[in-house]
Design brief:
There is one protein chain. This protein is of the alpha+beta class. It has one domain: 2-Layer Sandwich (Beta-Lactamase), CATH 3.30.450. Helices cover about 35% and strands about 15% of the residues. It is built from four helices and four strands. A four-stranded antiparallel β-sheet has the order 2-1-4-3. The longest helix has 18 residues.
Amino acid sequence: MAADVSKLQLPGDLTLKQAQMVLEAALADAVAQGVPMNIAVVDAGANLKAFARQDGAFIGSVDISIKKAKTARFFNMTTRQLGAASLPDGPLYGIEVSNNGVILFAGGVPLKNKDGVIVGAIGVSGGTIDEDERCADAGAAVLLK
């Protein structure tokens, strides 16, 4: 008898179907921008749930995309916001050395469901920080519809 895996899903966590929807929307935006991206989606526990590396995307950006997603989830804010708070005169100065390294530039965005609950995060790397963030925002927007 097969176990009912739906009972293993944590409340407020990202499902595989949702992660795939986020990934597909972000991929569509990357294609529209014409920039090959690495896109990582993590669940509420900051565990990798979905990932894609487009043809031609930088190999070094694989790790960056995953860390952007994890950083956004660890601190429940965009990596752009965290970067601003970590400047030398900011309240989080030095935070980049925590959690085995966090990313402090744009491209990591928390994922919220329709109820406003953070269920995971997306991290994108491969373009400029503005291109990365636009792609991440496109992926995150899917869960709000």
